[in-house]
Input
Amino acid sequence: MQWEVVIGLEIHTQLATRSKIFSGSSTAFGAEPNTQASLIDLGMPGTLPVLNRRAVEYAVRFAKAIGAELGERSVFARKNYFYPDLPKGYQISQFELPIVGRGQVEIVLEDGSVKTIGVTRAHLEEDAGKSLHEDFHGMTGIDLNRAGTPLLEIVSEPDMRSAKEAVAYARKIHQIVTWLGICDGNMQEGSFRCDANVSVRPLGEEKLGTRTELKNINSFRFLERAIDYEIGRQIDVLEDGGRIVQETRLYDAERDETRSMRSKEEANDYRYFPDPDLLPVVLDEAFIAEATRDMPELPDARRVRFQEQHGLSAYDANVLTATRAQADYYEVVVAVCGDAKLAANWVMGELAGALNKAGRSIEDCPVPAPALGGLLARILDDTISGKIAKQVFEAMWAGEGDADTVIEARGLRQITDSGAIEALVDEVIAANPQQVENYRNADPARRPKMIGFFVGQVMKKSQGKANPQQVNALLREKLGG
Amino acid sequence: MSLSSDDVHKIAHLARLAVSDEEAEALRRDLSNILDLVEQMGAVDTSAIEPMAHPLAMNQRLRPDEVTESDRRDLYLRNAPAAENGLFLVPRVIE
Output
């Protein structure tokens, strides 16, 4: 039987505020346990939550970025469940009236086509604390530093039809929230968490199959693998005549499989009701204007501008706008050297390769953008060849200074003195009589290929410093034909 | 509206309350009476009225995003029945 896969994602993004959503505690990651947990975060009687303005502003920015309806009036609700890392016995969330309504994003599929994925809603809520299950004399340790950290939970429509589409969508949301600066996007630290709702149905069937929810996924690679595993598992169950149980499953990266969490009875009976401690949030035009005033140019707009303004291919423009830091870096390089295509090749080639190898991000690149632009300018004004530029780049990476300093210190300036090049050409011709004869006897159509040998010899003698165009011209002249 | 004994036990379980069968019967009657009272309001036509989220006709005030709390962990941990290494300890949670 042909099966159709249906996937929806719930993405929890931690908003990059300094303080928590309802208290003045710090949200900094990695502090000593419980040093950032105030009476409000501990759920002590008599405390009251007060909403953080910036969390609301960030939600508004996200809404604008995905063309979503903004709930003019949104309401906080209590989601009731018991777990030790949720001290109040309820999570303050939003239910009927979320702050961000329906929107959409576009993803680019492997074949280059564009697909629109609906965003159902996004709502503000508080994060829970952490349970540490290491053995404390048979007890569980609770760290409430994370309790009350603001989250924007972004819920998609069940619009994705493969694990790859789900990953493309998750990456798109990641790109948008980091680009806007509303989330640091760090998946290892849990700032960006994906849960996937996965079901399958016979192709052509309207009714959705029973879904399972996959949790505990902390990278895009694992997201793809977890979904692919789960699709296979569900199809196996159905083809063996079984049925799918609606449940939460944890992904185990080491075994590459999903496992049923002990299904909790009435787990979904959260008995939401409006939180009487918080009043409705009303967004007026002035607030929205203020929140979105310094919104950056968005990735899709920038990608299109790169194509139009810098004459880049859709592919190059897409790669260069993967992150805002990379797009900013690229534009500085272009501004300094003046050649958009050369800049693109270097940022995506040499620079990306070096960053990848060193495991560094462009934010802490040892070669700043103006310095790379300066290096490319020396290729463009013929001070050095592209090949020598790679040597210079390595030296700059190692901290030997800017391009001009390295070129001078290492004596890499290109030889453009035609007398000096002529002498090298003569030496090479004299040293290779057999190749010269072969060349002169060859079919003229084959000669352009054969000249490469002589160019290589001259470049070698000059330690790569001879101007390649001059070498070519002189060789053709001297070899004749 | 009349609740069943099972309804009462389910609600009690969700709230993690231990309720005996005798208590459940008393609660069943009380809760059913409360629901009947609420049901009487259903007689009023509210089709033109916007649902209310809060009895106060005010909007939520917002606070600036500033860290105003300092670390008072030691004080708060002293309030807990068990603590170690800066953590609150609770009966083991098995997932």
User: Anything to note?
Assistant: Chain B has three helices and three strands.
